[in-house]
Amino acid sequence: MNNVSGKNLKRIGRVRQTGICLGKLFRMFVFQSDWKVIPMAAVITEIVAFVVAGSMNKTMEGTVKGAFALSCICIWNGFFNSIQVVCRERAIVKREHRSGFHMSAYIAAHMIYQAFLCACQCIIIIQVLNFSKVKFPESGLIFSSNRVDIFLTLFLVTFAADMIALFVSCLVKNPTTAMTIVPFMLIIQLVFAGTFFNLKGAAAQLSEFTISKWGIRAVCSEANYNELPMSSVWTTIKKMRNVEYEGSKPVQFVVDQVEAEDDGVEQFTQKCGEQNPSTEYLSTSENVADCWGTLIGIALLFAGLSVISLEFIDKDKR
């Protein structure tokens, strides 16, 4: 957008201004190595897949951990995609705004460009999971392919995180400040995900506004969480097999009885899973659509806030 004069900027509409800015962003993608965020997504996913591949979509516990890990990857990618994009060119944005460049067009261009980055990253994530032989359900809840459902969930988680970071980038004055804020943003998403901490009261209400909660909920729903076995109870029982009570080992007797039957352990863990269903992880299209709708709402909310914040950039004395 730098090569269009202020006089010309005032004569062209928002759609063309969006195209001008979008062209600049894609040139930066090619010539200023902004493409590096895509292979980095592959490296991070491979590290996570190495840990969760053996249990994700196979047990309840492994699925929750895998969903949490995938949400963390997407949030990490989204935050770092856009946390510096506005603040690093704040002076240019201010000058172009005074020349007639609409901030709605500027943010719209970033939304399109960031959606492209997020989609590329999520395609890479799915491919790495396939390569690592992570198990996927045979069919999806929204589309016929579960991989399409998972891709869209990961994309929306990444894009929502991206828009939050874009808003922060619109507020702060330099990249250093933006990068300082990122760890706090990540901690909020991790702690208030509602997975590993028992949240109550205000903390539980706050978790409703986190991307991580809705991402984990969607992934677990798509994995048919409530139909999976629960292995933690059996693991705990086996650890207690040598515990004596009044001169006998009752737990040892139970373990021997279960292991003596064909598929006894599998039946036991499946029964444990049936006794511990989660209403949040119901495998229904309505549940997944609710999660997707919330993530879209978060993304649009922060995109709108980004436009509003930049409309006042002329008054910024920083």
Largest sheet: none
Separate helix tally: 14
Question: What integer is the average pLDDT?
Answer: 88
Apparent shape: elongated
How many domain units?
A: 2
Distance between termini? 22 Å
Q: In percent, how much strand structure appears in the residues?
A: under 5%
Q: Pairing-aware structural class of the strands and helices? A: mainly alpha
Find the count of extended strands (DSSP E, 2+ residues): 0
Radius of gyration: 24 Å
| Residue runs with pLDDT of under 50 for 5 or more positions | 3-7
> What level of helicity do the residues show?
55-70%
What's the SSE pattern?
A: HHHHHHHHHHHHHH
Structure write-up:
- The protein has helices spanning 6-11, 14-31, 37-52, 60-82, 90-98, 103-131, 146-171, 175-191, 202-207, 211-222, 232-239, 250-260, 264-274, 285-311.
- It is mainly α and 318 residues long.
- It folds into two domains: 6-229 and 279-315, no CATH class; 231-275, no CATH class.
- The longest helix is centred in the middle third of the chain and has 29 residues, at 103-131.
Question: Helix and strand layout, with pairings?
Answer:
Layout: H1 6-11, H2 14-31, H3 37-52, H4 60-82, H5 90-98, H6 103-131, H7 146-171, H8 175-191, H9 202-207, H10 211-222, H11 232-239, H12 250-260, H13 264-274, H14 285-311
Summary keywords:
elongated, 69% helix, 0% strand, disordered N terminus, single chain, 318 residues, 14 helices
Summarize the model shown:
This protein is mainly α and 318 residues long.
